[in-house]
Specification:
Blueprint: H1 6-11, H2 14-48, H3 53-110, H4 113-125, H5 127-155, H6 157-166, H7 169-204, H8 206-211, H9 215-267, H10 273-318, E1 338-345, E2 356-360, E3 364-369, H11 376-384, E4 389-395, E5 398-399, E6 410-413, E7 422-423, H12 424-428, H13 437-446, E8 457-458, H14 467-485, E9 489-493, H15 501-516, E10 520-524, H16 528-533, E11 536-539, H17 543-546
Parallel strand pairs: 3-10, 3-11, 6-9, 9-10
Antiparallel strand pairs: 1-2, 1-4, 4-5, 7-8
Helix pairs in contact: 2-3, 2-5, 2-10, 3-4, 3-5, 3-10, 4-7, 4-10, 5-6, 5-10, 6-9, 7-9, 7-10, 9-10, 13-14
């Protein structure tokens, strides 16, 4: 772990303001420390020399003023740290979210959504300690420690030599302890990611687990991961406490050497009391920032680990080449037929479906059919850009951008559309800045949902609607987008799986009307009624059925 990752300045502009402000506060703090030590020395030596309280009042007043100024600088440093942390966290969160959008669902499939959620939540929040404790001390160390050593050298070069010899011991201990901290902190962060992923997966499949009576095994697994996380957390705390002890011991011994040297020279008269007291007051201040950096490093270690993961996501998104001519296929109003040329999908363990070559002309309904497990959904994901694919996908002869790129010319809905809390109209127009009531009503009518009122309130995950109604609202959402943005292709995954035959017939009539308006309607279905109403059928076979190895 680097003390200050340069990528932070690249991905979070507010970090630059934070560092500049911290440097100004650090310089003022160094001046206050020197002034405070000098004024204390003047007051003590003056009292010893017999100066009255009235004579020392100017110095005492200045001493109080310096103390108040230093307190104000501490407050300013904390205020800058809090605001800097809030701004940087916001910038990194937005940056990671945008990076995930640019990388696309194909990338997200290979990376746990639970880990990304943990990174954006708990991980970004952990940066508070990084900005409020670690970075301010790092800035103070860079500024205050050299100033203290320089001032001490001008006053007493012998004490400065002692400090210069013993000072490197603290960074040495910090490096050795940092290696151990990095390993245990990284392990704790990974276990937290496993815990988040397991929890999300368990919630998603809880109904299925209950049906088959397998929920106990998942409870045992969650208990195991939780215990592992608790063990890793205690290891981090143990290393933190031991490292703090080691740093305190090294700093105390170093200051003690300086104090002994000053004491011996004061006894033999080779050093003036004013110089010795001044140096003795400054010596701990030379070690304090560096010691605090080591201590606060552990408090910020989780935030540093999370920031590294965030930077990894941002770096990966930055490596995506910018398609200045992503062809007409990336334009919002692209037109023409969609064509696949030898398209197959590989999730890293070999192709999951035989290469598909097909054309989906406009103003037509095309059904992608095949046995369960043949790879229909994988082909669907490839067209959407949700899965990395081989072969070529073109629209009107122009190559479609790679997986992960936006496809503004396409509207789609899955078999189980995700509905959010709000009205039916808001769910139909989801993603649009405003709801076109007339267009939403037309979309519902085409989706065989004329009986659903636009003002009906929907709960989380579609509560308040039946399965068939939720499915038709999802279809209406795709139709709404198609009509609003003049999309060239509409993809529907098993749109009638939860419908009775009469409602299915109404839906197919609506899809025919939609197709007659221009777009190519592509449907995944195994239902005979849908296949019979299609203009063309594209068969899909798995690699095993096709004999592909």
């Amino acid at each position: 772990m680097r003390p200050l990752d340069p990528r932070l300045l690249r991905y979070a502009v507010s970090a630059r303001w934070f560092l500049v402000s911290g440097a100004v506060i650090g310089a003022a703090t160094a001046a206050c420390i020197v002034a405070f030590a000098w004024l204390v020395t003047v007051c003590v030596t003056g009292a010893i020399d017999g100066r009255s309280l009235e004579d020392l009042l100017p110095e005492l007043g200045a001493l109080v003023g310096v103390a108040l100024a230093r307190a104000g600088l501490v407050y300013a440093r904390d205020l800058v740290a809090a605001r800097g942390a809030a701004r940087v966290k916001s910038e990194l969160r937005l940056g990671v979210l945008d990076a995930v959008r640019r990388l696309g669902p194909a990338w997200l499939v290979r990376h746990s959504g639970g880990r990304i959620a943990t990174l954006l939540g708990r991980g970004m929040d952990a940066l508070d300690d990084y900005f409020s404790k670690y970075l301010p001390q790092l800035i103070l160390t860079v500024i205050v420690t050299p100033v203290m050593v320089g001032v001490i050298f001008l006053q007493d070069w012998v004490s400065a030599i002692f400090i210069l010899v013993t000072l490197p011991l603290i960074p040495l201990f910090m490096v050795l302890i940092g290696w151990a901290t990095q390993a245990v902190q990284r392990r704790q962060w990974e276990v937290l990611g496993d815990l988040s992923t397991s929890f999300v997966d368990t919630l998603g499949g809880l109904a299925t687990l209950k049906i088959f009576g397998r929920e106990r095994r998942l409870v045992d697994r969650m208990r195991t991961i939780t215990r592992d996380y608790r063990v890793q957390t205690m290891r981090v705390l143990r290393v933190s406490f031991l490292s703090s002890f080691a740093l305190e011991l090294a700093a105390s011994l170093s200051v003690a050497l300086v104090a002994v040297s000053i004491g011996l020279r004061l006894v033999d008269g080779s050093l003036a009391l004013s110089v010795g007291l001044f140096v003795l007051l400054l010596a701990p201040e030379a070690f304090l920032p560096l010691r605090q950096v080591g201590t606060n490093f552990h408090a910020a270690a989780e935030g540093v680990a999370a920031a590294e993961d965030a930077f990894a996501v941002l770096d990966e998104a930055a490596r995506i080449p910018t398609d200045t001519a992503a062809s007409v296929a990336s334009a919002p109003h692209a037109s023409g037929s969609l064509a696949l040329h030898g398209v197959s999908v590989d999730y890293g363990e070999g192709p999951v479906l035989a290469p598909v070559t097909a054309e989906f002309p406009q103003r037509s309904i095309t059904v992608i059919a095949g046995p369960s497990g043949a790879g229909k959904s994988s082909l669907f994901a490839a067209i959407l850009g949700f899965a990395a694919s081989s072969g070529t996908i073109t629209l009107d002869g122009n190559a479609v951008p790679a997986a992960g790129r936006e496809r503004p010319w396409l509207a789609w809905t899955g078999q189980r559309p995700a509905l959010v809390a709000g009205t039916v109209a808001e769910n139909v127009a989801l993603g649009s800045p405003s709801v076109d009531q007339e267009l939403a009503r037309r979309a519902l009518d085409l989706a065989a949902a004329a009986d659903i009122d636009l003002g009906t309130v929907v709960g989380v995950a579609g509560s308040g609607l039946s399965g068939g109604q939720s499915q038709r609202v999802g279809i209406a959402r795709a139709i709404y987008r198609s009509l609003q943005k003049n999309c060239s292709v509409v993809l529907l995954d098993e749109p009638s799986s939860a419908l009775d035959s009469a409602t299915e017939a109404v839906l197919l009539d609506g899809l025919r009307t939609l197709a007659d308006g221009g777009p190519a309607v592509v449907v995944i279905s195994h239902r005979r009624a849908v296949i019979d109403r299609a203009d063309a059928v594209v068969p899909v076979q798995s690699t095993l059925l096709a004999g592909v190895r």
